[in-house]
């Protein structure tokens, strides 16, 4: 392998101001998380597992409280029984919406796996239960279409306004909390009294504030992305206003028991430790994203967010315009992994997606995309979505491999 260390050092020099800002954000977020631990007097006993009904499971209850505290929310559900981001989003939506209600999405069509939850046919979707769905597309420049949102808000029985923070498999950039705050204010000023709901996947700890600091009532995400710090083995979180958390808790379990039950014999240490690590881990992932982004830009591949900007989520999309280059990039990410490095990635019909997806995830936690990973649908214009990195050094190591392949 050619030695790219000098080139990579020159990239780091060009990125040093952004890296310094990322360190500053990580410190602010680490402080928030530590305050949450201390305010709730977290002790060794909170890590202990429980069995059966799990009545009085302090580890479970306090976990919800510290996530809520760190996100400046009133209450939270954090559970290994939320199986993924999609499941957390689905439970939250079903908890909030009743037949005859309308869900209004203001950030364009939601992420691929959420679409069937909302409007699938005869699969027990919200639509099948009689929940209506309205969607406002983003404007051509990727910004919120306030006029169209205003028009939708005065019509229909809208109970939930849904905002997706990260890009998903779209070409737009993630929204900043500033932009999310602007749309929240607009929605409130229009007289909306329901729940402003944010799909916060990939956005946690990227800025010093979260959507809950900027007017959102509820944030939802996955613990095998940012919020689990690379340590949580599974799970999701839902944090926000108490009244909504209570409703969703009755949906997560049963209407009669809500959040009073739920046990987990393996214990909760990984979840606590994951939240503790998350601000730092997210900073590592952001640095990996900027480093790879700069190098891909130098190679002539368009990629987003522009490396002149601070990123608002940990993902980076890279347009290859060519199937081979895309597939080679993804395979190199896999070959650079600590786990399954000997595997050559192939595209497949991944559950929940319409297109064939190719995915590099040589991860300790299966499929965890807070770990260095890359994926994308194999179709023109051949865009790979790169994200994660538990350590910045891993990103550097992977970049050297990618450069030696793509420069050939
Ligand atoms: C990943 C993701 C989801 C779904 O999370 P899973 O854990 O993969 O089910 C939802 N929304 C966005 C924007 C995502 O990036």
Task: Name its key features.
single chain; alpha/beta; Aspartate Aminotransferase, domain 1; Aspartate Aminotransferase, domain 2; 2 domains; five-stranded antiparallel beta sheet; 12 strands; globular; binds pyridoxal-5'-phosphate
Number of helices: 11
Q: In percent, how much strand structure appears in the residues?
A: 5-15%
Strand count, sense and barrel status of the largest sheet are: 7 strands, mixed
Q: Per the principal axes of the C-alpha atoms, what is the gross shape? A: globular
Helix content: 25-40%
Give the SSE order as H and E letters. HHHEHEHEHEHEEEHHEEHEEEH
N- and C-termini, Cα separation: 11 Å
Count the beta strands: 12
Bound molecules: pyridoxal-5'-phosphate
Instruction: State the low-pLDDT regions, or none.
Output: none
CATH superfamily of the largest domain: Type I PLP-dependent aspartate aminotransferase-like (Major domain)
The tally of structural domains comes to 2
Mean pLDDT figure: 96
